[in-house]
Design brief:
The protein is mainly α and 184 residues long. It is built from nine helices and no strands. The termini are far apart. About 7% of the residues have low confidence.
Length: 184
């Protein structure tokens, strides 16, 4: 709010504090009210410093959207201007909520329902019970490829050790599967 102990704010577009309605928007509202009601609106402020009156309107209308302000201008009292900024603000606040541009998806609590056709695709990707996962099959292939070789480098030795760990972890977690599955 404007403090009377401070000098009057400058007029024009440069006087737009962060917490007030932009001056351009206020001028649009005031010009619309002036055109509609003429002297009945402008004459209400005779004898008052118009800069102070406009500053009060800027702060009172600061949190209204352009749509709310337009609603207020479209729904003014017939035959008389709004008695004060509070009456105009009350009219603006009666604006209906804007419809979202994209309809909101329904929110469901709990588990997400997966459509049957998507679930079927996932089932096709899941390894069969009698089949080893692809990473274990790849590890067995790496072991089969590197074990017979002589003079492995440090990187090849590390890869071979990692492949053995993958197979060992799988066999520990699936003891009956590993007995049925022949080593490569």
């Amino acid at each position: 709010m404007w403090n009377p102990d401070q000098p009057a704010p400058p007029s024009g577009d440069e006087a737009v504090p962060l917490d007030g309605l932009p001056m351009v928007t206020l001028e649009w509202v005031w010009n619309s009210l002036g055109v509609r009601y003429g002297h009945y609106f402008a004459g209400k402020w005779d004898g008052f410093d118009l800069g102070i009156v406009k500053e009060d309107w800027r702060y009172q209308l600061a949190r209204l959207t352009d749509a709310q302000l337009q609603y207020g201008l479209d729904n003014l009292p017939v035959g008389r201007p709004p008695s004060d900024v509070q009456e105009f603000r009350r009219i603006c606040l009666q604006a209906p909520e804007p419809k979202p541009q994209h309809p909101a998806l329904p929110r469901k609590r709990g588990r997400l329902e997966i459509p049957p056709h998507v679930r079927a695709k996932f089932e096709q990707l899941r390894p069969r019970e009698d089949e080893e996962p692809s990473n274990v099959r790849a590890a067995r292939g790496t072991i089969a490829n590197l074990e017979p070789r002589q003079g492995l480098g440090d990187v090849q030795k590390a890869v071979l050790a990692a492949a053995r760990r993958v197979v060992a972890r799988y066999e520990a977690a699936h003891p009956k599967d590993s007995a049925a599955t022949p080593a490569v």
